[in-house]
Amino acid sequence: MSPVWQPLTFSGVAAFARARWTRLLLLQTLVAGFVAVTVVVFLGRCWFPVMTQAVQGLSGFGAVRGARLAWPAPEAVVLAENRFLGLVVDLEDGGSTGQIADLQVEFTRERIKFVSLLGQVSFPYPSGVELELNRQTLDPWWNAWRPAFLLGGAFATVLFLFVSWLALAVLYALPVRVLAWLAGRVASLGKSWRVAAAALLPGAAWVGGAVLLHALEQLSLVGLGVAFGLHFVVGWFYVLGAPFCLPRKEADALVAGSNPFTPAPAAEADASPASAPAASSNPFQDPHPPPADNG
User: Fold this and answer.
1) Ramachandran area for residue 128 (φ above 0: left; ψ -120 to 50: alpha; else beta)
2) Do 161 and 35 fall within a single domain?
3) Which residue, 82, 68, 73, 59, is CA-closest to 138?
4) Nearest-5° angle of CA 251, CA 257, CA 263?
5) Which one of 13, 152, 219, 230 is CB 3.0 to 4.6 Å from 223, fit for a cystine?
6) 65 in a domain, yes or no?
7) What does the pLDDT read at residue 20?
8) Which domain holds residue 218?
9) Tally of domains within the chain
10) At CB < 8 A and 24+ separation, what contacts does 215-222 make?
11) What is the mean pLDDT of the chain?
């Protein structure tokens, strides 16, 4: 029996039906760790340098008070940007700065706005909360908390993956079991859940690779979106194919009653007590002779 270690083929995914749940958990942890590392690389390489530059470029005055942004200059200004993230202060929301980043965060007088290829969404500043937006306050705070934000991003990624894997495996377990039954394969509900959970891992690794390529500027935002959509297809591909690689059901046993034309097993036919004496061929010989008199 081959060891269960990889979910990259139909038979590899189906093998998790007979694996311990700890083996599946170990592989899930490895895949989740890989995806979390790619997210950390993306944050540290693409977003955090922009935020650091923006904080260091702040003036000595700026604050959010009474759900409004107080800013020293009325004109729109780009605090920092690259092709991934842009931070802009535009009090009048005039849009005069344009946009070159995949995601642009704009601070207007009364709202904070997020603009991307998918559209835009805005939120009002929290009422009753005062925020100091100046270099003297934010620079030491950001430098102290930046590693924690990276760690938090990794932890949030792992948590999200495990929760989504649990939910999707429950959802896909029934189709796996139905397909296994139609194909004449052995699959209990627990085995079907493990197969479904293993089938999700190639798609997650696919997304992790896409995020890494995007962070290294080898894949555009559109390409990343396409890769994210395709990772669902990858999961369905393995969910539909793996049940046909599960073990076949054993043939039904013959009903009661033995076949009279079937010879008895050799071991049974030849069996005879080793201690039994050989039968005498003389019909007049007493089978139980009296004991000899030695006196």
Assistant:
1) left
2) yes
3) 59
4) 90
5) 219
6) yes
7) 84
8) 10-42+142-245
9) 2
10) 215/38, 215/41, 215/42, 215/45, 215/46, 216/45, 217/83, 221/102, 221/116, 221/117, 222/117
11) 83
**CA 122 to CA 224: how far, in whole Å?**
24
The answer to whether residue 280 sits within a structural domain is no
* Integer Cα distance of 81 and 101 in angstroms: 7
- In this predicted model, which residue has the larger pLDDT, 255 or 246? 246
Give the whole-angstrom CA distance, residue 196 versus residue 286.
77
CB-based contact 28:197 (threshold 8 Å): yes
* Residue at 284: amino acid letter: F
Please state, in angstroms and rounded to a whole number, the distance separating the CA atoms of residues 193 and 170: 6
**Nearest residue to 26 via CA among 18, 16, 36:** 16
Are 78 and 215 found together in one domain? Answer: no
pLDDT (tens digit per residue) in 21-62: 888 999 999 999 999 999 999 999 999 999 999 998 887 788
| Nearest to 174, CA basis, from 100, 108, 243 | 243
